[in-house]
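Practice problem: predict the structure.
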Amino acid sequence: MPNEQFYSNLTSFDEFSGVAELDQYRALPDDWVILTSDVVGSTIAIEAGKYKQVNMVGAASIMCVLNICEGVEVPFSFGGDGGLIAVPASIAGKAKKELRKLQAGCGQMFGLELRASAIEVGELRAAGGEIAVRKFQLNDDNHLAMFAGSGTALADEWMKSDHPDYEKYKLSGDNVELPDLEGLSCRWEPLRNINGVMLTLIVKPSGAAKVDIAGEIAKVLKKPLSSFTPVKEKSLKFRFPPRGLAVEVAAGAKRGNWIMRYCGGLFTSSMQWLCEKFKIKIGDYDGSRYRDELIGSTDFRKYDGALRMVLDVSINQAETLEKWLEAEYRENRLLFGTWRSASALMTCMLFDLTKARHLHLVDGADGGYALAAKEYKRRAKRLS
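Answer:
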């Protein structure tokens, strides 16, 4: 079907400032389906110390769909405690089935509850929610989707609404079979800040204002945003055994006995540790180049109708930026929410190591995007 190639046929851009060029985004086809997901009670789970599991479920809601796409390229965005992914009509049925599997198995695998929805783009558009997309090139082998328009926020609103009109869009886990989460991994240590603090932020221009928020933030910080990536050579630490291995093994529940999976994870992570320590290659894993590939393949900055970033900044820079954001908010020029932490978390999506195809999803530790979103919503209520 021609529509299947919509996203793969998009021309990519490689300067992040391009996220502000709204006329360069392309409208998603009406018959594509927006799948959204969200961990129920994520704030409570985070307060109980389950922020790694919350991140894993958010990434899993994307990975379970990607694993059934069978070569069809689709756009997605990771939100920390959930995700958004758009698929063509031809695979929407399979995608919804996989998301239902994840919902049904979420308690068993992670001790969490997941809500999800599936809504045709045309229905969101008819309700005033436009959705357009661009493709941001990270490097030769990986890219990220950038979304524009109010449709993504509207899809999230319908998913969480108790209004009966929106019940038809909601998915429920009624399948005892577990989803395929092959490729989902979380073996790296938390990324410790180098500059002083990890600042997670969500920022959106108010009303119809067309403002290059990313560019304005870079001016406030007096350096390009790329200077503040939380994923650096100094921040990348790999230990054996990985602290996140149990969560990764839980994600692989479909693949058999827990003890056998854990032993297998210990073996492969020991090989990874050797590759990292001695910069050697074992199988598909090349320790001499993997870190460089990883650093250039992260989603620490993205746009989905709002700008979302995790930045490693100094305490002074964090205070200066938050004061600027507060002043702009009081002038009704933007909405924002921030969260400070000592480190960031990274969840990995491994597709093909031989072709350097792997993406790394970044969130602030101890709450990250979920708690920045809580502050964002509090400010939004003041304006309503």
